[in-house]
Amino acid sequence: MTRSSTKRKTILAAGGVLWSTGPGRRTLALVHRTKHDDWALPKGKLKRGETFERAALREVREETGCDAKLGLYAGLVSYAVRGNPKVVLFWNMDVSRKRRTRPNAEIAEVAWLKPERALRLMSYSLERKIVRKALKLRP
């Protein structure tokens, strides 16, 4: 009996738990992705030769329009995409510069929400765990 083997390639990605703070307020960025019709943390695949940290900052900038300062490592999630394993590493980030964003083919909307509201809106339980952990790290 022969067994066909398929080589599975691990998808590597990175993203951010992006915080904006001001007098008496702290909000978290979520993105509404058009293709998946979901609410999620900003994230995306690494480019060739790119570190997880650089990819996280790039993806946050591309998806939210914000430049950010990298903070503490927030954790990872892993799941399968069409049979391939995917690993996403997240970092806490603080907004250093906010720009206006316009809806595009990938991101329909960026929402800045209080953490409790963001947790209710988020589509994925694995990402909610990352945010809950991040809330424990932030006073």
Write the layout of secondary structure elements.
Blueprint: E1 11-22, E2 25-33, E3 38-40, E4 43-45, H1 52-64, E5 67-81, E6 84-97, E7 107-113, H2 115-121, H3 125-137
Explain what the structure shows.
This protein has 139 residues and is an alpha+beta fold. The chain has one domain: Alpha-Beta Complex (Nucleoside Triphosphate Pyrophosphohydrolase). It is 24% helix and 45% strand. The protein has 3 helices and 7 strands. The chain has helices spanning 52-64, 115-121, 125-137; strands at 11-22, 25-33, 38-40, 43-45, 67-81, 84-97, 107-113. Strands 1, 2, 3, 4, 5, 6 and 7 form a 7-stranded mixed beta sheet that branches. A hairpin with a 2-residue loop joins strand 1 and strand 2. The longest helix is centred in the middle third of the chain and has 13 residues, at 52-64. Residues 1-5 have low confidence and may be disordered.
The helix tally amounts to 3
What is the helix fraction of residues, given as a range? 10-25%
Please identify the structural class as seen in this structure.
Answer: alpha+beta
Instruction: State which percent range the strand residues make up.
Output: over 45%
| CATH topology type | Nucleoside Triphosphate Pyrophosphohydrolase
Summarize the main sheet: 7 strands, mixed
Order of SSEs: EEEEHEEEHH
Q: List the domain count as a whole number.
A: 1
Distance between the ends? 60 Å
How confident overall, as mean pLDDT?
Answer: 91
Strand segment tally:
7
Classify the oligomer.
single chain
The CATH architecture designation is Alpha-Beta Complex
- Which regions have little confidence, pLDDT < 50, spanning 5+ residues? 1-5
